[in-house]
């Protein structure tokens, strides 16, 4: 076999020797065995196994590390050499060897490992083995080894870190720090959950557990509205008033007032005969007359309120010359195109009209939206001299 050195040839480099002060042990000769079940040492390093002795194992580990620096088997080989040297330093009689299986693993690989271990033991008759592996796959051959020589210890070599994992942890930690300390994100990622926890705790403390769910949804809804319509930005701009800031503030507050009025108008539009005493919330939201009447009474003022907010954002971005103007125009176009389909939806609920008209309106609205988006994109790209649009 190639790379097999007898103890007489290994001499001081790989020869097992017994110190005069050798510790008492149940095993007089210990074989440090490195397992490469998928034969990376052969397929990548071009080295035949078994490899016996310190220096031949070092050469094999260096060759494999050169061919594939990321292969953990090279680290396992060097760990086996280190374990061998530690045993020698402590006065044990020891030898180190590297055996390999086959690329496709399986029964043939395990059989090859068994044969190679027997070859090693024919040259160095150990009565115990220390198994060095880089993972569970190599350790599956332990039963095979146990039938040949007792395994007195198994050491698994785990790489402390890889650059990709270290980089992932660094990025993850940076984002956590940003969520905790950056006011732009912390007020929502920490503030909103904090408000929910406080509200739930107070509701439970005062025995208002039934109202706690409604309170949680109210806080979430308010947070979504504030973030969706940039109300927080509008309020922050009060400290640095500009013409565009005043436009955005006025349109936002005006739009919110109109939306509130639209909700009140929708509630007033519900027929009294549709409301049954002690009606549960589930029956309310599943009653087509109540839902249809509420939406029909709300839709016009609600759309006006939303359009007021979007129009204020459009004027503000227009005066600043921002490319976000295109997005504001598209929002207004989509808002206008959805008005008729929603009215038809209420008719389907209340009057049971043909839903085909609703589907037709939605398809027409989608086509108009695509045309408008294409036109606006081309217009603003030409206006910017062919540059790619960026928000």
Summarize the structure.
This protein is an alpha/beta fold.
What does the model show?
- The two termini are 68 Å apart.
- Helix 3 packs antiparallel against helix 4, helix 10 runs antiparallel to helix 11 and helix 13 (243-268) packs antiparallel against helix 15 (288-320).
- This protein is 66% helix and 7% strand.
- The protein has a five-stranded mixed beta sheet, sandwiched between helices.
- The protein is built from 17 helices and five strands.
- The chain has helices spanning 7-14, 40-43, 54-67, 72-89, 106-123, 136-139, 142-146, 163-181, 183-189, 191-205, 209-228, 231-236, 243-268, 281-286, 288-320, 325-351, 356-383, and strands at 30-36, 51-52, 94-100, 128-133, 151-156.
- With 391 residues, it is α/β, with parallel strands linked by helices.
- It folds into two domains: 7-160, no CATH class; 229-391, no CATH class.
* Distance, first to last CA: 68 Å
Structural class: alpha/beta
State the low-pLDDT regions, or none. Answer: 1-22, 385-391
With helices defined by DSSP (H or I, 4 residues minimum), what is the helix count? 17
Strand line-up of the largest beta sheet: 2-3-1-4-5
Shape: elongated
Order of helices and strands: HEHEHHEHEHHEHHHHHHHHHH
- Could you report the average pLDDT, rounded to the nearest whole number? 78
The total count of strands amounts to 5
Give the biggest sheet.
Answer: 5 strands, mixed
Q: What's the number of structural domains?
A: 2
> What proportion of the residues is helical, as a percent range?
55-70%
Strand content: 5-15%
């Amino acid at each position: 076999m190639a790379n097999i050195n007898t103890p007489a040839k290994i001499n001081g480099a790989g020869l097992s020797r017994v110190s005069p002060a050798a510790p008492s042990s149940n095993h007089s000769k210990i074989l440090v065995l490195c397992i490469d079940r998928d034969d990376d040492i052969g397929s990548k390093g071009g080295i035949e196994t078994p490899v016996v002795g310190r220096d031949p194992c070092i050469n094999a580990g260096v060759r494999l590390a050169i061919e594939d620096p990321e292969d953990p088997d090279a680290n396992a080989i060097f760990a086996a050499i280190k374990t061998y040297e530690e045993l020698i330093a402590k006065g044990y009689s020891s030898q180190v060897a590297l055996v390999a299986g086959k690329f496709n693993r399986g029964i043939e690989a395990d059989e090859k490992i068994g044969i190679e271990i027997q070859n090693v033991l024919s040259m160095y008759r150990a009565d115990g083995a220390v198994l060095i592996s880089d993972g569970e796959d190599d350790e599956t051959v332990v039963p095979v080894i146990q039938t040949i020589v007792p395994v007195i210890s198994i050491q698994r070599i785990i790489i402390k870190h890889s650059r990709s994992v270290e980089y992932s942890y660094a990025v993850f930690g940076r984002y956590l720090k940003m969520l905790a300390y950056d006011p732009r994100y912390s007020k929502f990622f920490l503030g909103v959950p904090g408000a929910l926890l406080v509200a739930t705790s107070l509701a439970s403390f005062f025995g208002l557990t039934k109202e706690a769910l409604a309170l949680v949804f109210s806080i979430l809804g308010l947070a979504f509205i504030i973030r969706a319509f940039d109300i927080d930005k509008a309020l922050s701009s009060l400290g640095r008033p500009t013409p565009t800031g005043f436009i955005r503030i006025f349109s936002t507050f005006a739009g919110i007032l109109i939306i509130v009025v639209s909700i009140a108008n929708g509630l007033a539009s519900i027929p009294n005969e549709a409301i049954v005493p002690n009606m549960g919330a589930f029956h309310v939201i599943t009653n087509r007359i109540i839902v249809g009447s509420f939406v029909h009474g709300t839709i016009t003022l609600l759309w006006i309120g939303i359009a007021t907010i979007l129009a204020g954002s459009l004027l503000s971005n227009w005066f600043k010359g921002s490319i976000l103007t295109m997005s504001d125009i598209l929002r207004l176009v989509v808002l206008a195109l959805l008005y008729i389909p929603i009215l038809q939806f209420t008719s389907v609920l209340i009057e049971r009209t043909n839903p085909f008209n609703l589907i037709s309106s939605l398809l027409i609205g989608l086509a108009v939206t695509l045309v408008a988006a294409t036109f606006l994109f081309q217009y603003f790209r030409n206006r910017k001299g062919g540059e790619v649009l960026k928000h």
